[in-house]
User: What shape does this take?
Amino acid sequence: MIRRAFGTSPPLCTELGVKKITLHTFTDASQQTYGAATYSRHLYEDGSVTCRLVASKSRVAPLQAVSIPRLELMAAVVGLRLAEAVGNILNLPKHEWLFWSDSVDVLYWIRGRSRKFKPFVANSVGEIQSLTDPEQWRHMPTKQNPADLLTRGLSVCTLIDEESWWNGPAFLMQEETGWPEKEVGIKKEANIEVRKQYEEYSPERSFLSTMTEDRLDPTRYSCWTRLTRVFVTGIVSQKIAACHQRFARKQLWGQRKLSLQKCILLDWLKEKNFWRKSKH
Assistant: This one.
């Protein structure tokens, strides 16, 4: 048992009647440093709550210029690894781990698909999503973030008197209904890390615009082959790509692709009742 985590002279947990233990990890970053601090929150049967610092870790920011959102993401990875180490030692299940960050960009990335972002962000987000659920990551105001003290370079004399550093933010002593809540939006900084193909192309928008403007009127094309090519390019590119991954290693991909194109096109023409119109 780590004494600083449970008090100066803690009795056994069985004597205290611990009802629930959760692990809270706070992350933050600045141009100089980034890091995380992990706290254990004990909820007792009588309704009382205690919260203590278990471990913290900080690192010096890289010499080359790195944007603040990226540094915040690096801090999130440090917090993830720190929580994993502490959680394994204390035998706490992963669903009892909670993570807090004051960066909206980081929370937006964590809630997105990792392959949507550029390699730096994608790799970090992939690691985070492999060990935790995005819902375990929450937003909090900067003023209440104890990890902010890691980035300031405080002296030991000053740090001793920082109550929030040793016992965590005040809201952890309250019920969960009193914890900070904020919907994660989209900022320009977050969109910078999105790959170009996801930025410029949206299959849903392409499909809607194609159907709305009726660009696939069969009467506008002189031959079956041209109509098939335009149809596949405009509507079923996503399905073709999915099938391409499945049959990429097979030499019969070209034949399967052509067969798939014709089948989907025939189904679409039936839905549009083109055959009935052409007879009249």
